[in-house]
Every structure is written in structure tokens, then in C-alpha cells.
Amino acid sequence: MITVADILALPAFEQIDLVAPIKDAGEHRVYNVGILDCPPSINGYDVYMPGEFILTNLGFCYEDPALSDASLIAMIERRVAAIAVKRVYSPCFTDAVAQASMRMGVPVYLYSGAYHERVAFESLNLLQRDLDASDKSDAVDQFLVGRSKSQVRQEINKLAGLTGSTMRCIAISAEKDDRCSLYAIQDTLNDFLNSFRQRHEEVQNACAFRYHDTLLVFVSYAIDEQHDDIFHDLENAIRGVGVNYYGVGDLVPLGEADISIRQATILLNEAHLSGTRRLEWSDLSMDAFSYAAQTNPMFERTARGFRSRIEKYDAQNSTELVQTARAFVHCSGDIADTAKHLHQHPNTVRYRLRRIRTLLDMSDAHDRELLVFLSLAFLNR
Question: How many CB atoms are located within 10 Å of the residue 234 CB?
Fold first, then answer.
């Protein structure tokens, strides 16, 4: 997805000023780029569509503030993504434009830099790159459906050119307030990865590309174990290019590349949620098992089958056995703590646990056995 901020981060722009404050102006999605070179009297601007990034120098309005106002306001009312006005002709317009910009939520920028034809060329190229990247995102999604190890090796080679014995995936996102787009980070990273591969003979391949709204960094090795100094070199580069959060997947055999990719993307999401800049799989502790359970259809089907017995009983009898089972797991099998958590008497908890044992065909199980069983049944949260 290309945003206004991505367009403004292009080299063709130099000094940029926002005419009126618009909340999250840079987050507006851009679908196309258009050039404004005529007054609204020509066609009422009906050929311009919402979501377009409009470039203009207002040369056709030279020294005519009224025409400048009418042109910009008419374009704003088309609900375009943004309007960028080049300062080349000293554009003049009144506060009416700023008021319309704030009212419609359409940012208007004044900029110095390249002519708008060049800006349009770079912007359209960026949109095409995003289209190509989205195709690769689809390829990764398909890749994660589930394949044999030999198929995974073939697909990861086709997807990223990876060869060798092992690989690691790192998922990263840009600084929230950094105007540099993911593409700029991607280009910087790929330049580094080229030299990184040359410095370390154990490195077979290394590349970075867009995956939806993140970047995935793939590195493959000719060895089974990665040396710490090689990994530190890689991480130093990642931290140095404007990365906000990143998740580090495990080093895995090439035939298990999908596991490292899944881990990295899950970890990046967890890093955002927890506000932790960097996460490895082991950092998730108990939650790592929960995520692993979510990707195993047989485990999920088994756990869901046992949970459904308790859920159905609750639905038919207006009881709270599921809530009790979860609290029992949360309190590590301590009856007193479970009762306190539920605001119930301990005997009430014991009665409910006996009912749960009956439903699960575990009437003779001790509390410790029941705790282990319920921990597995409710592991996939």
C-alpha cells in the first residue's frame, strides 16, 4: 500500500510544507497520480478520482488568487488523497483553501523540488513497485499454506533465490514518524545485504522485500549454525536504517523456511502490541506454544473437541464450567486462588471441577492431571 508519506519521501521532493493541519495526512492511501493543468471550468475535474495524488504548479492561474482558490477547492472536493503545489510560479491563494482542506480532510502541500512531470514519473513507478510487491505478498501467503520440506525448499528458492543449508527470516517495520518509506529502507537494506554476503563466506543469499505493510529480510547460510558475529553484523544494519520494531525468526533448515517466516511475522505483531522493539521466538515463553498450536490443524481440532463438551454443557445448563476451567489453568491448579479469582467458595470450584472431569471422561484424574489436560485444551487462545 502506497501512502501520501511514501510519495513525499521520493527524491524529487525537497522542501515540503503543509498548508493546513490535517490529522494523519501522510497515512492517506494513494491509488494513482494526476497532474492539474487546467481550470475547473474545462470539465469540472470529473476526470480526477478520489485517492489520486494531484501535482500542479498552478501555472494556468498565474497572479490570479481567485482562480487558484477555485481550482484547489474544486480538486479538494473531489476527495483526492493530497494536492502538492510546486512553488515555481509563486502560487497565491487565500485561507479559503486551508479551510476547505481541513473541512474535507484533504492535505495540500507547497513544495520545492523537481518539476511535477518528474514527480509523477517517480510516483507512478513507486505505485508499480507496490503492485509488484503485492504480487510477492500473495506468493508468500500461498507459500505458508503448508508444503513438504522439499516443496518448501523449491518455493523459497523461487520466491527469494535462497539456497544453502539453513535460513532465517526477520520481519521489520519502519519508524512510525519516519517519512522515509519502506521502499527506501528496502533499498538501503539490500545495498547492505549485498556487501554483507561478500564479507561473510558462510552467507549464501540475502535479500529484503515488501510483505504487505512490512519488510521481510531473508538470509540463508551454507552452514548449520550461524556464528554470533555474523548475526550481530546483520542486526546492527537493521537497527541503523530506521526500524521501529522487528521480529527475529529462528535459524531453521531451508526445508522449514515457512516456520521462520511465520515466527518473524507473529513476533513483529507481538512487538507492536507489547511496545518491545525486538523479539525472538523464545521471548514469547508460554505464548509460543499457543501460537504453535494455532498453526497445527490436528492439535486445534483435538483441543476444540474437548472444549466443545464443556461449552455445550454450559449452554444447556447455564453453568460457568468454561470460565472455571480457564481460571483453574490461569491459577496453575491452585483451588484457593481459582476460587478467589472467580469470587466463589472453594467447594463450588471443586464441584465444578468434578463435573468437568465427568464431561471429559477423567473421573479418576487428580488435579495435576486435570490441570495438564485443560492447559492443552485451552492452549490455543
Answer: 23
pTM of the model: 0.60
Distance CA 51, CA 105 (A): 12
- Long-range CB contact pairs, 46-52, < 8 A, 24+: 48/75, 48/78, 48/80, 49/78, 49/80, 50/78, 50/79, 50/80, 50/81, 51/80, 51/81, 52/78, 52/80, 52/81
Q: Rg for the chain (alpha carbons), in Å?
A: 28
* pLDDT less than 70: residues of the chain: 133-135, 142-143, 145-147, 175-181, 226, 380-381
How many angstroms separate the CA atoms of 88 and 363, rounded?
Answer: 84
What secondary structure letter does DSSP report for 277?
S
Residue 153 CA, distance from chain mean position: 25
pLDDT in tens, 56-102: 888 888 778 888 888 888 888 888 888 888 887 777 788 888 888 88
